[in-house]
Amino acid sequence: MSSLIELPDAADDPTATAARGRSKAGGSLGRYLLVRFLLIFPTIFILVTLVFFLMRITGDPITAAMGGRLTPDQLAQRISEAGYDRPLPVQYVEYLGQVFTGNFGRTLTDNRAVTEVLLTYGAATLELALNALVIALLVGIPFGLLAARFRDKWPDAVLRVAAILFYATPVFFAGLLLKLVFGVGLGWLPIAGRAGIDSELALTGLGAPTGIYWLDAIRSGNWDALGDVGRHAVLPAVALGLLTAGVFLRLVRTNVIGTLGREYVEAGRSRGVSEYRLLAHHSFKPALIPIITVMGLQIALLLGGAVLTESTFEWKGLGFMLAQYLTARDFVAVQGIVMLLAVIVAVTNFTVDVVAALIDPRVRY
Amino acid sequence: MATSTSAGPVGGSVWGRLPVVSHLRMSVGLQRGMLVAGVVLTAVFLFVAIFAPLLAPYGFAQTSDAAGPFPTQAPPSPQHPWGTTVGGFDVLSRTLWGARTAAAVIVVAVVLSIFAGVVLGLLSGYLGGWLDRVLVVVADAIYAFPSLLLAIVMSIVISHGQSSLWGGIFAAAISITVVFIPQYFRVIRAETIRLKAEPFVESAMVIGASSWRIMGRHIFRNATRTLPLIFTLNASEAVLTLAGLGFLGFGIEPTAAAEWGYDLNRALSDATSGIWWTGIYPGSAIVLTVMGLTLLGESMNDLADPRLRGRRRAKTPRHGTTAAGAAGKDAAA
């Protein structure tokens, strides 16, 4: 879900999203978590099935990728070697079995194991997503609280319009503007890639690299590289982070306004509790459940945005590769990447439910 | 439902009960300002979309006129007020024509997804049982998935990526539709389940009305009040998804229609050499369109919810205050 505004049916009840999978007879935390965990599998299964059949409706992957380059005979031979001439249900069952054992096949265009592609570029996407998340939280939460505190006054008006502006700006346009201003215009920051050539070589040459550059730089004590990686990370993280920050700001504002109006806040105020404490403790903490739940759902927005951000900044992660493979019509690779993203989304949603249940016993039922 | 408690008709006439008009009447202060801004931006967008052929100095795929071929990457000049692109297109013309493409995609996508989402939501909510469970699980799975990725997969299925004007518009619209159906489905299903327990539905059952009649007549009429809201929200998301598809090269071919996302993709390499005019204008067009639609949708959302709606202060004389005159905090307490 990547809409700025929650749908009416979810906006009303703070526990609605978290309690989707509640069991009737349940009661214990363990049981609740088990049900939520088991619900991951139908979600992934449905998405695997959906993507598989949608991709196959268009024909076999080999014709799509190699269509113009091979003669019809060669094409037919390749297709039968790969088993794409068998009935779809047979291929589907085989594919399910492969996915189950962690084998996503080999890419058609550059003949690499899809698993290897996922591992190599996944780290870069993780790094980008984490950087963007930090920006989004740093901007979204304080300003959301501020907007709630000064509801309907000018700071609220400015911040709400800013939040809509952030949401309305496609991440590639934000990236373009940032590049023009800070890269080309002022010359402060690099406009493409994850690191300069020197630090890239130094970091990928390490034994057992994590692939997350700043972590590798710290581990090897290479401070020059760390600075270089940091400079490269700023613009992509800001472009993607501000998009998400707009949603977070709105989310914090709406939910804190809800709790600020409660009687116990008024009671606290009459006891002389400071306005800051009323806002940051009395109002913010009870509002955390819906905030965390919906923030977790924004992982989809973040991942979708990452695809566009990576293409904008030539950040060689999963999104960048996805765009490359899409252009090359390499649908085996595309399917693998899409699948991994589906798993990440499902697992994140589960984690969010767990966190919500741990914080608030009412969620469990 | 937050919106089920929305205030009834404000004016007696049909005009006064129209979505935007009634919202405008009950709004005050800042909320009215945001609503008006949304209405104005959306109106400008629609105006440009309809009259693009008259407003644009050139065609969207035109690269030459009587005076010879257009220069490429030329900065703004009297002949080309917003400059030209690397392909020799006129930026102003393409930006104006792009509104038309975006509007067409919005209309097709929203109409298709409302139709499918409403039918599925009614069936699922009213009939219940295994159909309901399956549809809910599938809708939740799709709902959680990054919408852009799903749209990409769909556009591969429909058009193998590249296509003509209407083929491209339909491919983009259907791709977006698949993402939206679960949203309409959820809302309509929730409303249907609520309405199913209402006495008037039970009365209809007792009289012996068929399921189709009850769904189509009694429930549908009452379950659709939140649709204008979701409509505007989805319209803004449709513009962003279309631009995202175009940016990744899965939109409409540049010679078939003008599309802002594609133009921004081309502008990306221009930015490296300091050419700003090819990107700023189509990008700003996206931002303004999405802002207009979002402001409209958000204002309608807030106004439909009594807890969020700002109120006029009763009988209090106004001392020339600013937006604070909405006095939301006092009214909500």
Describe this protein's structure.
The complex is a heterodimer of chains A (365) and B (333). Chain A is mainly alpha-helical. Chain A has a domain at 114-364: Orthogonal Bundle (MetI-like fold). Helix content of chain A is 72%, strand content 0%. Chain A contains 17 helices and no strands. Chain A has helices at 8-11, 29-57, 61-66, 72-82, 88-100, 114-149, 154-168, 171-185, 197-204, 213-219, 223-260, 263-271, 275-283, 288-297, 299-313, 318-327, 331-359. In chain A, helix 6 runs antiparallel to helix 7, helix 8 packs across helix 11 and helix 16 (318-327) packs antiparallel against helix 17 (331-359). The longest helix of chain A is centred in the middle third of the chain and has 38 residues, at 223-260. Chain A is globular, with a radius of gyration of 24 Å. Chain B has 333 residues and is mostly helical. In chain B, a hairpin with a 2-residue loop joins strand 1 and strand 2 (68-69). The radius of gyration of chain B is 23 Å and the shape is elongated. Mean pLDDT of chain B is 74; it is low at 1-11 and 315-333.
Order of helices and strands of chain A: HHHHHHHHHHHHHHHHH
**Mind telling me the C-alpha Rg of chain B?**
23 Å
Rounded to an integer in angstroms, the radius of gyration calculated over CA atoms of chain A is 24 Å
Report the strand count of chain A: 0
Name given to the CATH architecture of chain B: Orthogonal Bundle
Low-confidence stretches of chain B: 1-11, 315-333
Rounded average pLDDT of chain B: 74
**How many individual helices of chain A?**
17
Largest sheet of chain A: none
Determine the fraction of residues in helical runs of chain A and give it as a percent range: over 70%
Percentage of β-strand residues of chain B: under 5%
Q: What is the straight-line distance between the termini of chain A?
A: 25 Å
The secondary structure category of chain A is mainly alpha
Biggest sheet descriptor of chain B: 2 strands, antiparallel
Fraction of residues in H or I helices of chain B: 55-70%
Choose one word for the global shape of chain B.
elongated
CATH C-level of chain B: Mainly Alpha
| SSE run of chain B | HHHEEHHHHHHHHHH
Q: Characterize the quaternary organization of these chains.
A: heterodimer
CATH fold field value of the domain at 114-364 in chain A: MetI-like fold
Low-confidence stretches of chain A: 1-26
